[in-house]
UniProtKB/TrEMBL annotation:
Entry comment, domain topic: The last Arg residue of the ACP-binding site is essential for the weak association between ACP/AcpP and FabH.
Pathway info: Lipid metabolism; fatty acid biosynthesis
Family the UniProt entry places it in: Belongs to the thiolase-like superfamily. FabH family.
Name this protein carries in UniProt: Beta-ketoacyl-[acyl-carrier-protein] synthase III
Pfam families recorded: ACP_syn_III, ACP_syn_III_C
Species for this entry: Streptomyces fimbriatus
Active site annotation, chain numbering: 113, 238, 268
Domain Beta-ketoacyl-[acyl-carrier-protein] synthase III C-terminal per the UniProt entry, residue ranges: 222-310
Subunit organization: Homodimer.
Annotated HAMAP family: FabH
Enzyme Commission code: 2.3.1.180
Length: 312
């Protein structure tokens, strides 16, 4: 075994739904204003009794069931999140406890919106190095906990949710080499800070960086996988803003690819956005087993990470 693959994916969105009309009753905004600027129509909001690890465990349990695996077969748990309020126990340990995973290495990965693709690369490296045989990789965030519900420029964006993948050893790699990095001098552009912590961002700075720099980075991720953008069956970018996602997909050159647009229904779920959107594409039958799919996350720090994976 000298490779790793995604054996299955799963996702979870809380039952509560917040519409644009609901937000119009909370702040000075409207459905037309929100949809024209970010493309979001609804977002799912967890209740006060639904912590991040519960969202994560729901998605992880679905991924395990889809893979036909039990918690006892997992030896590494990675949870990408930036909304873990407590420092210890971490979310990975809490998820492992909820699922009954016996004795795994359990680590959180805080790279905000690029968290899942960083965690997926870390799991791939661990499995290929022989440090783990089967990993559970989860992206989960409860952005409603850190939202400033008086700021119409940010509160209209956020949603809660989780997505998960089971990564296991295989003869041929189904997870391409990661392209990752950051722009530390722009780390201030996306923030979750303060007491209590609150999400804020410099939206125009992020937009300009994403639309000008990300196409070439995404193409490099394809090159590392030995593929051209036109070979892609799907593109799953961080679900930040439809005005970023659609132009980016065109500029990457993924002319034959399905483009994930889950942001319209789920909002920006930070580290959950890529696995959640990917799992929903699989569930809907929009991609088939073995299809090459580009996953590319970007956001806080300003960090980015992307890789081409084969669809489970």
């Amino acid at each position: 075994m000298n490779g790793s693959r995604i054996a299955a994916v799963g996702h979870y969105r809380p039952a509560g739904v917040l519409t644009n009309e609901d937000l119009a009753g909370m702040v000075d905004t409207s459905d037309e204003w929100i949809t024209s600027r970010v493309g979001i129509r609804t977002r799912h909001i967890a209740g006060p009794d639904e912590p991040v690890d519960e969202l994560a465990a729901h998605a992880a349990a679905k991924a395990l069931a889809s893979a036909g695996r039990t918690p006892a077969e997992i030896d590494l748990v990675l949870v990408a999140t930036s909304t873990a309020i407590d420092r210890s126990p971490n979310m990975a340990a809490r998820v492992a406890a909820r699922l009954g995973v016996p004795g795994p290495a359990a680590m959180d990965v805080n790279v905000v919106c690029a968290g899942f693709t960083h965690a997926l690369a870390t799991a791939d490296h661990a499995v290929r190095a022989g440090a783990a045989s089967r990993a559970l990789v989860v992206g989960a965030d409860k952005m409603s906990d850190v939202a400033d519900w008086t700021d119409r420029s940010t509160c209209v964006l956020v949603g809660d949710g989780a997505g998960a993948a089971v990564v296991e050893a295989c003869g041929e790699s189904g997870i391409g080499p990661v392209l990752w990095g950051s722009v530390p001098e722009m780390g201030h552009a996306v923030r979750i800070e303060g007491t209590p912590p609150r999400f804020s961002q410099e939206g125009q700075s992020v937009y300009r960086w994403a639309t000008t720099q990300l196409p070439s980075l995404a193409r490099r991720a394809c090159e590392k996988a030995g593929l051209a953008p036109e070979d892609l069956a799907a593109v799953v970018l961080h679900q930040a803003n439809l005005r970023i996602i659609e132009p980016l997909a065109r500029r990457i050159g993924a002319v034959n690819a399905v483009v994930a647009r889950d942001v319209t229904e789920s909002g920006n779920t930070s580290a959950a956005s890529i696995p959640l959107a990917f799992s929903r594409l699989v569930e809907q039958g929009a991609v088939s087993t073995g299809d090459p799919v580009l996953l590319f996350g970007f956001g806080g720090n300003l960090s980015y990470a992307g890789q081409v994976v084969r669809c489970p």
